[in-house]
Write a structure and sequence with these properties.
The complex is a heterodimer of chains A (111) and B (138). Chain A has helices at residues 3-29, 36-43, 46-74, 77-106. With 111 residues, chain A is mainly alpha-helical. Chain A has a single domain (3-106), classed as Up-down Bundle (3 helical TM bundles of succinate and fumarate reductases). Chain A is elongated, with a radius of gyration of 17 Å. In chain A, 26% of the residues are buried. By secondary structure, chain B is an all-alpha fold. Chain B has one domain (22-136): Fumarate reductase/succinate dehydrogenase, transmembrane subunit (3 helical TM bundles of succinate and fumarate reductases, Up-down Bundle). The interface between A and B is large, with 38 and 34 residues.
C-alpha cells in the first residue's frame, strides 16, 4: 500500500466514524439497562445490527491505520515488519470475531 | 547549502526535552494517546459482543468485570477519550481541507475541541443512564 492511499483511506474511515461513533455512543447509552436481554433486543433489529457491524469494522479499520502510523514512527529496523504484521493479524481477527458475534446476537442469539 | 549558513534560530527537529510544551503540542500528543486507548477499548468492545453471543452466562462473567468499580471508571474515562479523539479528529479533517493553519486559529480550534469534548462528555454522562451505571453499576 502506498502512502497516499493509506492517507486517503485514513480520512475516509475518519469521516465515516464521526456519525457512526456518535450513533454507537447514543445507541449504547440509550439502553435502559445493559442486561443480556437488553443487548439482544437492541441488535435483533437488522438495521441496528448492520450499523453496529459498520461501526465496528470502520473503527477497526481506522485503528489499524492509526497503529500503522505509530509503528512507522517508533518501531525501527527488522522489528517494524513483524509488528505491522502482528497488528494486521490482530485487527483482522477482531473484525472476524466482531462479525460472528453480531451475527449470532442478531439471530436472537446466545440465549 | 553549507550547514554553517543555516540561520541559528531555525528549529531543527522537535527536541521534546528542550522546548517548553505548547498547548497545541499537548493536544497533538493527546490525539495519538487517545487513539491508542481507543484501539485498546475496541478489543474490549469485541470481547463484550463475543460474550453476548456466547449467552447470558459468559455475558454475565464479562459484565461482572466491566461493572467492577475500577473498570467502571476506566470505561467512563474511555467516553471522555472518545469525545476528545472525535472532536480533535474533526479538527484534523479541517486542516486536511486546508484551513486553520495559523497559530491563532490552531490554538483557538484546540480550545474549542477541549470545550466540545468536555461538554459532550458531561452531556453523555448526565443525560443518559451512564451516570447511574457509573455510580450504582449497570
Amino acid at each position: 500500500m502506498n502512502g497516499a492511499r493509506h492517507w486517503r483511506n485514513q480520512r475516509i474511515s475518519a469521516v465515516a466514524l464521526v456519525p457512526l461513533g456518535a450513533w454507537f455512543v447514543y445507541a449504547l447509552l440509550s439502553r435502559p439497562d445493559l442486561a443480556h436481554a437488553s443487548i439482544v433486543e437492541w441488535l435483533v433489529d437488522p438495521w441496528q445490527a448492520g450499523l453496529m457491524l459498520l461501526f465496528g469494522w470502520c473503527a477497526l479499520w481506522h485503528s489499524a491505520q492509526g497503529i500503522q502510523v505509530v509503528v512507522d514512527d517508533y518501531v525501527p529496523g527488522r522489528l517494524h515488519g513483524r509488528v505491522c504484521l502482528a497488528s494486521r493479524l490482530l485487527h483482522g481477527a477482531l473484525a472476524l470475531i466482531l462479525a460472528a458475534a453480531i451475527g449470532v446476537v442478531a439471530m436472537g442469539g446466545g440465549t | 547549502m553549507d550547514l554553517r549558513d543555516k540561520p541559528a534560530s531555525r528549529p531543527l527537529s522537535p527536541h521534546l526535552q528542550v522546548y517548553r510544551l505548547a498547548f497545541t503540542t499537548v493536544l497533538s500528543g493527546l490525539h495519538r494517546i487517545t487513539g491508542l486507548l481507543l484501539t485498546a477499548s475496541s478489543v474490549v468492545l469485541v470481547a463484550w459482543l463475543a460474550a453476548a453471543a456466547g449467552g447470558p452466562e459468559s455475558y454475565g462473567a464479562i459484565g461482572r468485570v466491566l461493572a467492577s468499580w475500577p473498570v467502571r471508571f476506566l470505561l467512563a474515562g474511555t467516553l471522555a477519550v472518545f469525545w476528545y479523539h472525535l472532536f480533535n479528529g474533526i479538527r484534523h479533517l479541517v486542516w486536511d481541507a486546508g484551513f486553520g493553519f495559523d497559530m491563532r486559529a490552531a490554538r483557538g480550534s484546540g480550545a474549542l475541541v477541549v470545550l466540545f469534548a468536555a461538554l459532550a462528555f458531561g452531556a453523555t454522562l448526565a443525560l443518559t443512564p451512564a451516570w447511574r451505571w457509573l455510580v450504582d453499576g449497570p
